[in-house]
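Changelog-linked ticket: iron/sulfur cluster example.
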Amino acid sequence: MKTDTGNAIQNKPAPANGDDGEMIALYQAHKKIYPRSVTGVFANWRWGLVFLTQIIFYGLPWLEWGQRQMVLFDLAARRFYIFGLVQYPQDFIYLTGMLVVSALSLFLFTAVAGRLWCGYACPQTVYTEIFLWIERKFEGDRSAQMRRDAQPMSLDKFWRKGGKQLAWVAVALWTGFTFVGYFTPIRSLGLDFAQGNVGPWGIFWTGFYAFATYGNAGFMREQVCKYMCPYARFQSAMFDKDTLIVTYDAERGEPRGARSRKADPAALNLGSCTDCSLCIQVCPTGIDIRKGLQYECIGCGACADVCDTVMDKMGYARGLVRYTTQNAMANHWTRAQTWRHVLRPRVLLYSSILLSIVIAMVVSMSLRTPFKVNVVRDRGVMARIVSGGKIENVYQLQVMNATESTQRYRITAQGLPGLAVASEDVVTVDSTQATRLAVRVQAPYDAAEPGTHPIKFEIQSLDTPGHLSEKSMFMVPR
Ligand code: SF4
Ligand code: SF4
């Protein structure tokens, strides 16, 4: 991949005498980028995803499922509530599955169309878009902002900058509050904030997330994508010559140059690029797509949108800057040919693995037993001989009810002749709660030789279908 960072680390040796050597800068000074607003197909897609993701993010914690919050990651109680599912730490496999699905989706999208995630759905892009929108409401578009920033402070500049900062802080705080609302019930959290009763951790995490949102979307912006995001570092490994990327059609665009709308570019020996620089002005990372594929490009399509408006004004065909592949560009493929090559074996392999994992997860979740049991031999109580000449072992059973109604479970033991539960064999567990109980298991004196013997606990749900077996050991003393 060609890179054009414009801020390469200079690595020249220092002069021996050290007097007349030039200063060596390790990092380029940050220059503020003023992205120009843009409209078009890809901008609409981005705004569509901004609305979709933010309606879900801000709205979900306020929705209820029965008597509880619809989505709540209750870390203190070690339960995750996701719609109708109650997940315990033992369900970690599903969380792992979701992470694998997310990672594979990212690989798939990247193989198909490069940094789709970056350009349209990444929180950094989404919040930067929102913060830019607020900035433009207060300070106007690119040229007005640049002009005002070059002027000394005035009342007009002060209220615009101040208003923008207040609006940013408000959005950031609401975002931090919403984030915390996924881990603690949001309605009571809101009440606690209103009454000034929020605990230190609530304040810390709300402030931390708000600060991260404010800093990343308000100030860091493209620097997060360029220098901080690890995904930007390895994404090129997932590109190949059939990956759709935003590309400048140099063959058609060059030689670039300004001309009047009525002029015939062929007569002037010019290509379609009018060298208007609008594609640079709209770029959120401030690069020139005409220099080729660069690692800073987040694939947002803003340059394609703006270039299409220029082409429309000039009366030229759209698509001087467009999503296409390197192979399509080199071979002059049609759109249909390009798509046929995009759906290549790698993409089909990622898709089938992804689909298999999703199906396996859905099937496994729908078939899972809605309760869990942990069995531990009670080491505080040794095997003993009790009245009637029986041998007794005591176990600690933890029964976790993962349904939203009270459930009863019958506990039996098997594995040795005459083995039976001697304590209460039916346990009642409230909805989404866990109960720990001591279970006494007895066997006739002559049921087995001295030593340890494998046995099984059978736990049968009496109210909803469900059955579990848990292994343990039964000790027969000498
Ligand atoms: S927006 Fe299009 S026409 Fe204008 S400089 Fe960029 S590539 Fe050339
Ligand atoms: S070069 Fe074009 S697609 Fe890439 S980040 Fe800039 S505007 Fe977005």
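Closing comment: Example verified and attached. Residues 1-19 have pLDDT under 50 and may be disordered. The radius of gyration is 32 Å.
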